[in-house]
Amino acid sequence: MVSGAPSKIDTVVIGAGHSGLAMSYCLSHRGIEHVVLERSDVANSWRTERWDSLRLLTPNWQSRLPGLAYEGDDPDGFMTVPEVIEFVDHYADVISAPIQTRTTVTSVCCAGDGYQVDTDRGTWKCRAIVVASGACNVASVPAIASSAPSSIAMVTPLDYRNPDQLKEGGVLVVGASATGTQLADEIHRSGRPVTLAVGEHVRMPRVYRGRDIQWWMDAAGVLDEHYDQVDDIKRARNVPSPQLAGSPGRSTLDLNALTGIGVKLIGRLAGIKNRKGQFSGSLRNNCALADLKMNRLLNTIDEWVSENGFDNEVSPPHRFAATTVEKSPPLDLDLSNGQIQTIVWATGFHPDYSWLGVPVLDRKGEIRHEGGVVDSPGMYLMGMTFLRRRKSSFIHGAGDDARDLSDHLTSYLANTISNADSILQAGANK
Amino acid sequence: MTDKKVDNGVDVEFLLGAREMLTEAPEGAQFQWRAKCDWVYGTHSKTSVEGFFGLGEEQNHKTEYTFDADHPEVFSSEDHGATPVEIVLAGLASCLTASVAAVAQHREIQLNSVSATLEGGMDIQGILGIDSDVRNGFDGIKVTYNIDADASKEDIEALVAQAQKRSAVYDIITNPTNVTVEVS
Prior knowledge:
The structure holds 2 protein chains of 2 kinds. Chain A is an alpha/beta fold.
């Protein structure tokens, strides 16, 4: 396989996670010849890059992909990581996706009117390409991490598995999105006192008026909001993941829940200097912003309930207590006196495009695209936050995006074929 | 909905245009702000601002502005002007207030009146070197806004929260900044 002439195919899909597979399903339905290249096994990042206790943020009934709905007996539960792997594996089987596993893409370049895809197991030439290689390949760690004293152990969510791998003693968790709040919760419960550095965040109750918050956002159309309907898509794409956890008890995991078990809140980590962490004085405002934003979401839900005559079906509207912030949160933290032993960088993730030789990256290293249609003919992107819809990065968001983008891809291939044909035709007619 | 046009005097169209333009040409977004300070006598000094750099070239205020700073008589000074820490409060107040107006314009909220009171607590045992555990600067700043606007209380709170998020001086005060002082 390594040597020999390149294989020719209409379309290459990079990545056999739920996004790449949803795209594969749609391409098969449209009769588009394609291969799905996967560096390891189906759902690789779920197999190798997730912590033990993680469950999906979305309830099981929402785990649906084109051609496969949730069939289990616990629609309101949340899948564990092994269950997600099984679900995605099962999907790959059900749709008979043409996957070539254990094939790592080493480069993608423009070649003629299409692309050349080099892998460690041979070369492909294709006219269209779908990048479904994931949004969270690399943990984003701020540059200031290098200033931390060497006595401090540091871990990212991609390396973290469970609290037992951490030293005894205090832990500074930096970042209060879904990852940061979940890890703060379980690490603090393991007897390692947690200080949580909180910047901008998104607060959400797990359950509101008796229904899961995802149910409400689904019903009220919030999740279907399109990328070209929002004021500022750039900002919307950078919004941190909501403070949610999928737990059997459907409990809310907001900052009040964390301070309730003894986690200490501190402002956004702004610097590390002279072995001290420096924290922003903006904690109060960041909490106020998150409270206000949550209330706007609850208002949207309440309005939807009234407009749809649903008031008698669900419990009455209510509001949650404002986030409690101590009067003067500390602005610095000594990182050399032994109180903090470990820093967990829950500061987000970014994709790895080191293999991508097509000039489509903007100055921030992100792919330039319009709702997943990349700024290079025949190239498409899947699975990114708010790619086409607010739900794009969720499992249940892949279906609609794959349908739209596979339509676009299909007509792109048809049009370029007909162009090539008409050029041939014109040549023949001379 | 009324068809009355919201007018807080902020040219939001211009700001949005600038944002778009500077996204394409980020080098133009590099600004440098400057001030020049001359000691007068005692704790009295005069600071002036006029030129700055931005949008790729030297820029100027319409005219030079000067600020007298001094300390009050309880410090045995002559009180020729505001204390420097009060000027910091003034900077924060005016920055936040400008931000409130801009965000209100963008959100189509008509402001009728906006006033803020600022209180910065300080234990002067720090600057006097009495207690090394006490910092020189404020131990906290409290800003209280009184806003009359054609909007709900919740919308006004959101306006003030967003104004903090977009304010330069708020950022300068709430986050550390490297300061280099040299003698030429």
